[in-house]
Amino acid sequence: MGLDSVEILMGWERAFNIQISDDDALVLRTPRMAIEYIARRLEAVDEAQKACLTLRAFHRLRASVISVTSINRRSFCPDARLRDLVGRDQWDAIRSSCGIDALPNPGWFWPRTVAELTRWTVLHAPQDLKPAGEPWTRAEIRCVVRAVVTHIIGSDDFGDDDDFIEDLRVG
C-alpha cells in the first residue's frame, strides 16, 4: 500500500469518524467496495437523501457569510472569489455562525472561490452537514468517498468500479 492509498484511507476515516483495519483496507480495491464497506459500517439507508452534502454545505456557508458580512445573496455564487466577499477578520464569526468548526483557518489555507470552500467542507466536515441522528445514505457516502479520492489523485475522471492500483495508479 503506497502513500496515496494511506492518505485515501485516512481521509475516509476522518470524514466518517471510523477506523478501517489494515486487513479491511487491503481488500478495498475500488471506490464501490469502499462505499459498500463504509455503508455497512455506518448502517446506511438506501432512501433518497433530503439534499446532497454539497448543496447543504453551499447553503449553510452562504447563510453564514451573508449574516456576518451583509453581502448581497447573489454575490455568493460558486465562482465568486472568497477574498472579495469575506475579510479574514470575519472568518471566526463565519465559522461560529455556520457551526462548522473545521472550516479552514485562513492563516494556513484560504480557498480561492466559494466552490473550492464548498468542496473543502464536504471533504473535511461532512458529518457537520448532517443533523444529529440523521442516518447516512449510500449517495452521501459515495459523494464523500469520491471527494476524498478526487482530492488525493487530482482527478474526478474515474468510475466506481475502477481498481485503485491498476486503473487509477494509486500507489
Give the CA-based shape.
globular
Number of spatially distinct domains: 2
Helical proportion, percent range: 40-55%
- Please tally the β strands and state the result: 0
Structural commentary:
This protein is mainly α and 171 residues long. It folds into 2 domains: 1-45 and 139-171, no CATH class; 53-129. Helices cover 51% and strands 0% of the residues. The chain contains 8 helices and no strands. Helix 3 packs across helix 8 and helix 4 (53-69) packs across helix 7. The termini are close together.
Summarize the entry for a quick read.
With 171 residues, the chain is an all-alpha fold. The protein has eight helices and no strands. It has two domains: 1-45 and 139-171, no CATH class; 53-129.
Features:
single chain, mainly alpha, 2 domains, 8 helices, 51% helix
Write the layout of secondary structure elements.
Elements: H1 3-16, H2 22-27, H3 31-41, H4 53-69, H5 82-85, H6 91-98, H7 114-124, H8 138-153
Helix pairs in contact: 1-8, 3-8, 4-6, 4-7
